Amino acid sequence: MRETATAPTAPLRARAEIDLAALRANARTLRALAPGAALMAVVKSDAYGHGALRCARAAVEAGASWLGTATPEEALALRADAGLPADVRIMCWLWTPGGPWREAVEADLDVSVSGMWALREVSEAAGEAGRPARVQLKADTGLGRNGCQPADWPELVREALRAEAAGLVRITGLWSHFACADEPGHPSIAAQLTRFHEMLGYAEEQGVRPEVRHIANSPATLTLPEAHFDLVRTGIALYGLSPSPELGSATDFGLRPVMTLSASLALVKRVPGGHGVSYGHHYVTPGETTLGLVPVGYADGIPRHASGTGPVLVGGKWRTAAGRIAMDQFVVDLGGDEPEVGSEAVLFGPGDRGEPTAEDWAQAAGTIAYEIVTRIGTRVPRVHVNEGPSGQEPGDGPGTGD
Ligand SMILES: *Cc1c(COP(=O)(O)O)cnc(C)c1O
User: Fold this and answer.
1) Which of 57, 127, 166, 203 suits 245 as a labelling partner, its CA being 20 to 30 A distant?
2) Which domains does the chain have, with CATH numbers?
3) Which helix (H) or strand (E) holds 366?
4) pTM of the predicted protein model
């Protein structure tokens, strides 16, 4: 095991260990699931809280040829990273007027365009930069979020082709995004695929020759081969989490959770029965017991909504957040056990040491696992382990994770 930060055994208040071997294995599993498609590793929002640069490098080592981010700033930071191959394609899709179009063109980013304002701004920047912009036209096939409505598609396609003829843009992709891919059989899935085929067909008839056509996120990559097209954009599955428990567990898909969040107990003490615990006294000890102080709170991204429900593994047993989760800390009732102060409290991980998973926290907080990992705060150090050049360390050979 190789570490990139403090050794895993170092006494830290809290740590999010990021297993890059697991991430590489997940990337290979996803590639095997979509063998005809290129793999885009979606590393927006600091790789869903896992650390964008190290995760991007690991994903590329495992065969991802594209990286995806929401904002142009995230994409530009990846392009500036010397640890990534210069030819890796980097796409970003969430633009606002006045964005860094010129920097994006000069950094050879693939930029998403959903409307005429964006096409105008990117064309102008390309003119100034003296080189064509790589543009991917986004279709709203039914999500109702970003993307071009079918009624506006002919104009966007026509003007993009005009800009291409003028040498200002190169239309590298046509793409869209699903609304309900995590609900197998939802009627919107087939409707969106039909609409996507129609909008692709129209653009291609008009003369667009995209390198890639893509619509699949993690759930579609895992369950809808007919949605793979030329490229799949996977975020959550790369981090070893299932997009939704209804779809199947991470294990069902051969994925391994990448993040383990743990903390060192800051205090263990005996208290009498009837003792209120934490703000508001929403928990009162049912009898004499021991309490353990877990030194992470909602400022670290531990959801306050999981007060009274969030699970923690301490000394081999599941304990529950007793009373309110505060900004920096919360308490667990240890039921009379007296683990040493400094003992490890595991909030979530892959689950194979008996610890809860991010999915368990999602259920405890009434949210999704995406939000649990993404919101872990910057005050929690990420400790990247198994960072291996070319992924050649033992036990990480071909086939792992399939
Ligand atoms: C976040 C995002 C993805 C990745 O979604 P997952 O469900 O995490 O795989 C793909 N495409 C777009 C446009 C996104 O915003």
Assistant:
1) 57
2) 21-239 (3.20.20.10), 259-385 (2.40.37.10)
3) none
4) 0.94
